[in-house]
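Example 4.3 (complexes with small molecules)
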Amino acid sequence: MKVALITGASAGLGKEFLKALPSAFPDIEEYWLISRNRDKLLEAARLVPKQCRVFPLDLTKDESYDKLSRYLGEFQPEISLLVNNSGCGFLGDVGEGELSRQVQMVDLNLKGLTAVTHLAIPYMPAGGHIVNISSIASFCPNARMTVYSASKSYVTAFTLGIGEELKKRGITATAVCPGPMDTDFIVSGGIKGHSKTFDLLPYCDPAKVAKGALEAAKRGQSVYTPTLFYKFYRVVAKLAPAKLMMKASKT
Ligand SMILES: NC(=O)c1ccc[n+]([C@@H]2O[C@H](COP(=O)([O-])OP(=O)(O)OC[C@H]3O[C@@H](n4cnc5c(N)ncnc54)[C@H](OP(=O)(O)O)[C@@H]3O)[C@@H](O)[C@H]2O)c1
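Answer. The structure with NAP bound is encoded below.
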């Protein structure tokens, strides 16, 4: 049974992946949807004209990795596509506000993504694809979202690393680096209305991001940055002095 496993499928960009997937990967027969909220997952499953299994798991928790490992062992899926989309980002300096928020970004964006990938890879056939949702925040450190931008630098570097490791198995890995999108993320992260940079930057359309990311995965592209504006920003971030970039990209 060819399966797509999508984390963070209950909202925002994750839901757009669900809408874009059937036409991009028509041979996928079953969808495995993961996030914390079962009801939202069941609602999201209605978007997909194929069989869905929902797994309400908190990917910051070690016990969730044990559960996922057991489900994989039980159902023995052939994971043609893995989309690691669950993620969170909170505005605020390190050393201020609640510790739990800083740690949550590390636990979900780094630990959760790493664990799900590690568990899924043994079930992936040749021709499989991994899509990891990173961010333009991975291009250089963003003060006031330092942990978030560092976590997304990890996601991009991790994706490039596994892409190299998995070449011998015919599996591709793509890091997707969108700019801001108008989803729950910017509300729950305390960003909306509290960041001049977010107010100024052009927003990406999540539907276009999802569609473009799946096309990039099929091409085996290692990094996909939507829109010309953010492609240009990526090049500038590579060439400009780090100090200058950090000043310009302070959240
Ligand atoms: N929006 C932006 O401006 C922006 C820009 C660049 C990159 N991104 C990245 O895009 C990805 C999707 O974000 P989004 O904008 O669609 O945000 P969103 O609407 O807040 O969606 C986040 C998803 O992650 C799930 N999630 C949150 N905590 C979780 C946990 N502990 N365990 C499992 N799942 C969890 C949420 O579901 P539950 O609440 O049901 O768990 C939800 O499905 C993230 O990786 C984010 O970093 C976002």
